[in-house]
Amino acid sequence: MSRRTTTAALAAVVALLAAGCGGIPGSVTSVDEPEFARELPVPPLAESTVADGVRTFRLTAQEGSTELLPGTRTPTWGYDGPYLGPTLRAERGEKVAVEVTNHLDVTTSVHWHGMHLPAAMDGGPHQPVEPGATWRPTWTIDQPAATLWYHPHPHGETEDQVYRGLAGLFLLDDDASRAADLPQEYGVDDIPVVVQDKVLDDDGRLVLKDDGGEPGTLGGTVVTNGVAGAYQRVTTERIRLRLLNGSTARTYSLGFADRETDLVATDGGLLDAPVRLDHVRLAPGERAEVVVAMHPGETTRLRSFEADLGGVAAPFAMGGNDAFDVLELRAADRLAPSPEPSWGPSRHTAADALHEEEATVTRTFDLDERTINGRRMDAGRIDEVATVGSTEVWEVRNTIPMPHSFHVHDVQFRVLTVDGEAPPPELAGPKDTVYLEPRRTYRLLMRFDDYTDDVLPYMYHCHMLLHEDEGMMGQLLVVEPGSGAQPGPSEALSGHDVGHDGGHAAGHDASGPVVGDGYGPRQAAGGHDHAG
After folding, report:
1. Which of 220, 377, 450, 466 lies at a 20 to 30 A Cα distance from 305?
2. Dist. CA 367–CA 359, nearest whole Å
3. Model-level pTM?
4. Of 146, 147, 236, nearest in space to 188 by CA
5. Per residue in 261-303, pLDDT tens?
6. Phi and psi, residue 191, nearest 5°
7. Which of 301, 188, 202, 278 is nearest to 234 (CA)?
C-alpha cells in the first residue's frame, strides 16, 4: 500500500474514532521533557565580501554529526557546519549574491523563503544544485526588514533534507528597523530560536516515520537551534526572540505560562505597533518576533501550549494536545535597561502598502489531501499566470479536517479576512505562510512586483513538507502585459523530471551562469539552459 493510500485510510479511521468518542483526550505524539542544562547555540552571522557593489555570501551544504541529545552523536546535514547554517544579514537596497556549493552526494537546492526576487534566483525545484556544483543567485534586497529563512526545495526530497538539518535564517534590515526601540544586538538580546521536532532511534539516528500519520512526522524530541533542553542567559531587561517553526509537520503555540509577550513582527516584517499576546501559533515555515520582559535573577521558559488546530479530525494524533517547554531564559542578577518596544514607519511604507481596492484578479485555491484545485504538482505544467504590477486576492480554503498551511513564493501577502471576519492580531502583519484551519476561507491580498519570466515559475504550496513532496504544489508565472503566456503544459519545462528521486529539474544549469542581473523588471533572457 502506498504511503498516500495509508494516509487516507488512517485519516478516515481517526476521524471516525474522534467522532465516536466526542474527542479523545491525551496524545499519541507527545514530547519528552529534557533537563534544561545546555547553553543555546546561536548560529554565527555569515561572513561576506563586498566587491563591485555586490555583497557575496558563501554556503556549503555538507554532512556532519550533532549532539541533539547530550552524549549522543546524530548524523546530520548543515551549511558550513554539521547542523543548520549561519545567519545571513543584509540591508534593504543592497545587491547580494550567495555562492551555494553542494558537498552532499544528492541533488539539493536552496530556497530563500519569504524573499522577493527573480524566479531564476528563487531556489525552488527548478534551480537544482548537483553534487559538487556551485550555484550563484544574485538579486537586490527590496522589501521591509524581516526574519526570513533559507532551506532546500528539491521536489520529493524537501522533507528529508530539512529534517536532516539544512536550514538557516536570513535577516533583513531597513531604516525603520535600525531606528526602532527594539533589542538589536544579535546573540545578546536579539536571539534566533529555530524550533524543530525529531524522532531518534536507539543509535541516535534520525528517523522519518512512514506510518501514514498526519500531517507527517511528529517527533518526541524537540530541539532549539539543534539542542534539546537549551537555556539562554539574559543580560537585558528585554530580549527579542526571532521564532522560526523549522519543523516539517508540527504546529507550535509558543508563549510563556507566567507572562505575556509583545508580538512585534510576523513573517514579512514589523507590525504597525506591538501586540500583547500570551502565545502565538506557528505552522511549519511561519515566523514571529516577540519581545519578552525579564526581571533580575528570574527564570522562565518558552513553552509550546496545546495548539488549536482548528477542528482537525483527531487533534490527539496530529500534535494538537501536546504541551512542552522548548527554551529556558535565565536572567542575570543585574540587567541592562531596555526601552519599551516601539518604531516608526519606513520611508518605503507607502510604496510597500497593499490596497484591496486595487485588486484586479481573484483566484480560488482549494487544498484537499494532496492536491490544490484537484491537481498534483507537474513540473511541466504552469497552473497560474499573473501580470507584473498586478494586485490580486487569493481565496484559499482547506477542504478537509487535517492540518494544511499555504506558502506563496516571491510575495508577502496580507490576510484580509478569515471566513469574512477580520484576522486575529497575529495574522495582521505581512505574511508569506499561513496555517489553514479546516473548512475556513482565507482571503489573501498580494502584489506581483518587479520581476518577470516567461519560462521559470514561482511555487505556491502546502508547507507541511510531506504534503509538498507528495504533490501539494502549483506553479505560477509572472509575466509582462501581453506576453501571451497561458496556464497549461509548458514546452520549455516539459520532459524534465522533478520527481521523488531528486533528479534533474527543469531550470538553469546549477553550474552555469545565472540569467539576469537581479534587478527588475525584466523579461526572461534568451539562452535559458534547461538542464535535462
Report:
1. 466
2. 23
3. 0.91
4. 236
5. 999 999 999 999 999 999 999 999 999 999 999 999 999 999 9
6. -120, 125
7. 188
